[in-house]
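DATA SHEET
Item: assembly model
Revision: 1
Owner: S.N.
Input lines:
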Amino acid sequence: MNRFASISFYLLQIIFVGTIFGYGTVRYQARFAETALPTPLNEPVQMRPRYDRPDLLSDAQLVATLEKLKPRLRGRNPKINFVDHALRFWGVEAQFTDEQCLSGVEMRDLLLDHRVFQDSWGTDANPFLIPDFRGDSKLLEMRTKDGAASASHTDHSLASLAEVGTPLDFPVMTPKGEIELRAALEYSLREFSLNQDEYEWSTIIFLHYLPEIQNWKATSGQRITWDHLADRLMRQRLADGVCFGNHRLFALVSMLNADDNHQILSAEKRTDVMSYLKDVTNRLVKTQSAEGFWDSKWPGDERDGPPSEDKGSPLGDVADRILATGHALEWWAFAPKELLPPDETLSKAVQWTYSEIQALSDSQVKRFYTFLTHAGRALSLWRGKMPHEVWKERTEQLAKLNLTDADSDQPDNKQFEVSVMGEVR
Amino acid sequence: MQLEIPSPEPAVDSAQTKTDALTDGNTASDQGIENNFLRENLVVSGWGLLGTVLVAVFFIYCSYLPIYHTDIWGHVSYGQSMIETGKLPVEDPYVELAAGVEMINNAWLSQLLFGWLVNQSGPQGIGDGYAVICLATFLAFAATFSVSTGNRMLGFCLAVCTWLMITFRLAIVRPELLGELCFALVLLQIAIADRVRRKSENKNLTYPIWMWFSLPLTFMLWANLHGAYIVGFAVLGAAVLGSLGTAIFKHRSVSGVWTDKQLRADVMLVQLSLLAACLNPYGIDLLLQTALFPTHPNLKTVLEWTPLEIISLEGIPMATSWLFAAFFIRHSKVRFPIRDVILLLVLSLAVCLRVRMIAWYSPVYFFVMAPHVADVFRQVSQIQFVAKLQSVFGFMSRPTFHIALVTGFVCYLAFAFTPISRHAMGGTVRPLDQIVSKQTPIGITNYFKEHPQEGLIYAPQWWGDWINWELDGDVKVFVSTNSIHLVPPEVWNHYMTISRGRPGSQALLTRYRINTMVVSKDLQPGLVKMFEGNKDWKATFSDDISVIFERTTSSATTKVAAH
């Protein structure tokens, strides 16, 4: 065999093997390798309330409601699910002169600073923040469904932080050092699968940080689109899900809002979502009680039968009603006009909620607090403001009048009633 | 001494004698010459006739074998969808829980064929196609082993053994069957090349010219028909390693190995075949997907992807084959090439890891063992009793024109008695319940035609493809056999939880809003019992093989709010 043929043969081999392995590696990375996570926005998008309806609720009623629902969480062992609900309700900007109350910043620190968490819960408690370092990835898990020092629902705490505008570069102090909040989003994205048990808050997280992303690949290899998420949110029975299914409705409305700005849904899916929510509204109109509330049976009959007879919450009828009614008012506050019920329905629901909250004892407020945060927030949203904005205005007015919180607590303080609360029914 | 006795001289051929008598010994006319030519050349021996009869019976058997009820209908659906849209599916078009999971359809060409067959002839078209593919595959195996052993009868017997060893797999029509045909063609080409090389006086001959084209062509076809073409590369790879080993022994120097012609030829043949396999709609991605496929987490719970157990449908023939291998290798005087050692070890290991690999082990086993079996038979033939026995059956080895005519008639009868003849000879198509297997849930799909379903239903995955095909996706099943590797692992785990009635299954049914359960009486008796005893469900349909449970409306569940 001549030398030239021999060299040619082996050159050919080098080229062949190089090409196959090179191109194969490129294609493997492109199609089969674990894909990079989508690039999120650092600052989460914020949803603003759509309506200001003084005809539904007066300023004074709103202030009275917020007064009742202040986050009196200072002290030992504040339940983490109370803290994240309260943070979502009041926002980071909230400040209180009442010493029992935690400010928005303090609530956020309880969630995102392990040292503050330890100050409240002691060193024996399992940490709420669990850093998870996998290879090059820095992930952050927030302990969930593991007692009072943990969140109550998958992704709930991060969703709450997103809703109050926490940026992804916000420094988080974990038991193993400082890390950015981005690590929590990456953990959520890596753990997410379309058919997981609770996905409502995951959707909220993605809507806040990934509104400009049309689709992404989950760890399982499934490409997640907003259409898929919408289908998932609409799959189950209406009342099946946390808070009688209302969080799914809230997520759907949030999705419509994001779609207004970023066209994340296909035209067909947007129509589906609108029809679905219209149907929900029609059902709510039909099933509203004479007093104005709803309960666990709010959907009425569905294709697979009437609502279940025995599935209320363990806290009793009053809690269930506040839960169902408050949540419905909350998602309606962000819904387009076509999805709203008649004014009469809204008015009855708002006024029932206000009266019921006023009638609650302190111990009931404490027990129902998570439910009440949704109801309180809903009432504020229907006045076109976030609760901390209302509270700030109220505090400023008090300051102008040289009054304090203590004065406002005096039932016979006429000056306060007239100037700040207006005419309280 | 050979089992097959060499043909007698033409002078004593009875057909020739009769021809002479008819022409009265005069000079033959042109027609007479033609007749004589036919009579001299169109001859078949008694063994040939016997083989033809057996093959004819096999063909008839295959033609009437009911179509198995599992994934074939998914392949038909994909094929019909491709024909209709002119596009390859990007995702599973029927299983909505697999939405967003990109699919590489490595059996697209098989599916196109199955879809076309059903479009042309209805479900019977699948039966016809199955019989033809089986026939072609069997003949290819028979030819391969005949070439390997140099003995047609032995080749035929080894082909029968190959088939029997994996008959439970080959009884199912699916793209794998077309892969098996391609595998048989690859082995046939290698067997021919081995024989040509053995008989050639040219010591430099590596492969016949035609094989440089035919082998890559086979791989191109195989890669588009079924994902098991990777096994073909295992065969070629073993040949490369075998040549490398031989070259090392032969040359005992790096430069000698470096320039070994056979080694180079083997390497180049692998490379050409690899390039040919890349000629598919997905390019090199198909190869990557095929290599990665066995690592899919969902396959861990699929029976055919589990490791070998000796006391099983696959374990017993495997153990038997190893015992026979030990016997034949002990007594054979034929050299055991390195290639064959590697092949046998690799395929044995493959079956130990994944039992479904027995479909490829069986042909390789007999391919490797064929020369040894032939040698042992040669030794056995020298025993006086066996030699006597062979002489008794000597008349069977004499080829005649008459037997050829009978053979032709047998072929005609085989054709005429099978459903495929209706294309040429007319006739009616058999009813559906005779064409498909008894386990096909015809009753279920008839029920769903009368009782349309909303939302997802649970059905065992092996019925999912039939339900999808028969109802054209109007009823949405949880998982089908074709989508096992497409649904996310979480969904597959949920399917398994429900299928086995594990704790949490009722909550999952609620999560997926499943109000209708299709349960197999034979394979899921525990699930039947579980739902019969559950007051939230009632049986609304039942037949010999299945039962449908529907959720009673009064007990529809709602999840408790949890804070």
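QC remark: DSSP finds 18 helices and six strands in chain A.
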